[in-house]
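[#protein-structures] MJ: dropping (2Fe-2S) ferredoxin domain-containing protein here for a structure pass
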Amino acid sequence: MSHRPRKAAAGTGPSRPTVSVCRGCCCGTPKIPGVDHAGQLAELRRSLDGSATVRAVECLDACEHGNVIVVQPSAEGRRAGGRPVWLGLVNDPHAVADIATWAGEGGPGLADPPEILDLYTFSPSRRIRAGLEGEGA
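AK: finished. structure tokens for (2Fe-2S) ferredoxin domain-containing protein:
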């Protein structure tokens, strides 16, 4: 009998979106000045309490885009075609509010993001994506 963990069956996953907030080597540190990093994370947690999971994660290796936030779909959102959305240069409280509103409405696959978030969206390398998405996204 194998002791390796089984991959989750298609369609299973979190029942709500997950908002991963990079707090590694650059994001969330004085290397990005003029941002209330603790306040940013606290605001996301407060705004999304009960509607999305908010977690601080180690360095996502996309430092040139700091502060980085990834909004991952719920299982329902993934079934509807939603995929993780990577947002960079999230250094403005209005952007944080827009992310919270979108994730609170269902996030990728279930709700359209505010158009302004297009300015923050970027595509990390496949290797970087696999690092986060391999954690159960």
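MJ: nice. The chain has one domain: 18-135.
AK: one more thing. Residues 1-9 have pLDDT under 50 and may be disordered.
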